[in-house]
Specification:
There is one protein chain. This protein is mostly helical. The protein has 14 helices and no strands.
């Protein structure tokens, strides 16, 4: 019960970031001179509050970087990029808790219809801002929750932008998880790193509130020795070719991924792609 209570507190914090970033005691001092970092930061928060994420980012990028690196401002700065990436926290949380979609990867792909490469880059930018604080042991609960859901959004935007270009919630018939043009190696690696980041960050919060999502991802990691690495936080560049190949097959499989491997489960998909899924 305590863990769930803490989780809900974190949910409330993130909700504030995306919905009701409000006033401070020094509101009039902040906006008196619109050229100060304080005034610009205040204006950017109001833009985030109204979901005008692009405008918020434009303002934030005129602020002295050291001002935004102050710990209490990091989640706000990152949330502007997460928002433009497509993350709506409560909507995604509700989807994870209540969806009947077969796999977490299908769920995430369908949760971000119309995603483009630019959305993926925004998620990467948000991730970098939060990671500057440190790993999951150095981050506080709110920072870990934000980066965990940003990682889920990154997975969703990668899959949606590459594999579901007609936005029907299913993998395109022409999408080939083993084709480096359809599914670039860099994106496979980024998706893999998001798995580890999600599991580690939610684990650091210490809640079982959304175990359904992490359990399904962890099931993928148990499927094959070359998938185990994806269940721990790691640099995308650290994955070797065999691990990247295994993740491609898992993502294409019907039992773990987005079912782009001709309806085959992980084992059959692997057999069907022996030597042809680099």
């Amino acid at each position: 019960m305590e863990n769930n209570s803490n989780f809900l507190k974190h949910c409330f914090f993130i909700t504030l970031l995306f919905l009701t970033i409000g006033c401070t005691q020094n509101i009039f001092d902040e906006i008196a001179n619109k050229d100060t970092d304080e005034a610009k930061y205040f204006e950017a928060r109001q833009k985030i509050n109204s979901r005008s994420y692009g405008e918020a980012i434009e303002i934030l990028e005129t602020i002295e970087p050291s001002y935004l690196q102050v710990r209490e401002r990091v989640p706000v700065y990152a949330s502007a990029y997460s928002g433009r990436c497509g993350l709506e926290f409560l909507t995604l949380l509700n989807s994870i808790q209540n969806s009947s979609v077969q796999t977490i990867f299908l769920l995430l792909m369908s949760a971000f219809p119309g995603a483009q490469a630019a959305n993926v880059q925004d998620c990467l930018q948000a991730e970098g801002i939060i990671e500057a604080v440190g790993d999951e042991t150095a981050r506080n609960g709110d920072e870990n929750l934000l980066i965990a859901f940003n990682s889920l959004a990154k997975i969703g935007t990668i899959l949606s932008s590459l594999a579901d270009t007609d936005d029907d919630g299913a993998a395109d018939g022409t999408f080939d998880q083993c084709d480096n043009t359809d599914f670039p190696d860099t994106m496979v690696r980024e998706l893999g790193s998001s798995i580890g980041t999600t599991i580690a960050s939610l684990g650091a919060i210490g809640t079982s509130y959304i175990d359904g999502a992490t359990q399904e991802v962890e099931a993928l990691c148990d499927e094959h020795p070359n998938l185990e690495i994806f269940c721990s936080p790691t640099d995308p560049a650290d994955f070797d070719p065999a691990e990247v190949e295994a993740l491609r097959i898992a993502i294409g499989s019907s039992d773990l991924g987005i079912n782009s491997c001709g309806g085959n489960d992980f084992g059959d998909c692997a057999l069907a792609n022996v030597g042809s899924c680099p």
